[in-house]
Amino acid sequence: MNNFTDILRAHHLKATPQRLAIAATLYNRGHVNIEELYEVMLKKFNSISLATIYKNINLMIENAFIQEVKIPNAKSVYELSKEAHSHMVCDNCGAVEDFTVDLSAVTSLAAHETNFKINKADLVFSGLCQNCQ
Ligand SMILES: [Zn+2]
Ligand SMILES: [Zn+2]
Which cofactors go with this protein (predicted)? Predict the structure, then answer.
């Protein structure tokens, strides 16, 4: 089990009970959207507001403790920060899975074609997960 108190502090974040609960939820579930997170948090902190959760989430993103994964046509999910990776998203059940693929060839081709200076490349593939096929 990770020591999230230390990890939060390493990201210059105070380890409040709410932030520790968010960290544990992302650790246990991998990828969580705001509604799922709200549901979990309500069970632990019965008067917590969605605004408070967003405030914590945004601060945790700013300090690179967690990251947002933007999914086309669906709510963003949040995950603990880790090495760059891409995502598979199930169109049926919404399951999100990580996978790692070397995008350097695609990235340099894209940069060459568009003259963009690319900061980040992460792909989101959609389809049907094993359970939904
Ligand atoms: Zn599925
Ligand atoms: Zn991920």
Answer: Zn(2+)
Residue 79: other Cβ atoms inside 10 A: 19
- What is the spatial distance between Cα 91 and Cα 66, in angstroms, rounded to a whole number? 24
Distance 100 CA to ligand 2 centre (A): 9
Query: How far apart (Å, rounded) are the C-alpha atoms in residues 115 and 98?
Result: 29
Across residues 95-100, what is the average pLDDT?
94
Are residues 15 and 74 located together in one domain of the fold?
yes
Binding residues for Zn(2+): 90, 93, 129, 132
Indicate the pLDDT class of residue 2, thresholds 50, 70 and 90: low
Q: For residue 65, what is the domain's CATH number?
A: 1.10.10.10
With tokens 């380890």, the residue in question is 15
Task: Tell me the per-residue pLDDT of 15-64, one tens digit each, with 9 for 90 and over.
Answer: 999 999 999 999 999 999 999 999 999 999 999 999 999 999 999 999 99
Counting the structural domains of the chain, the total is 2
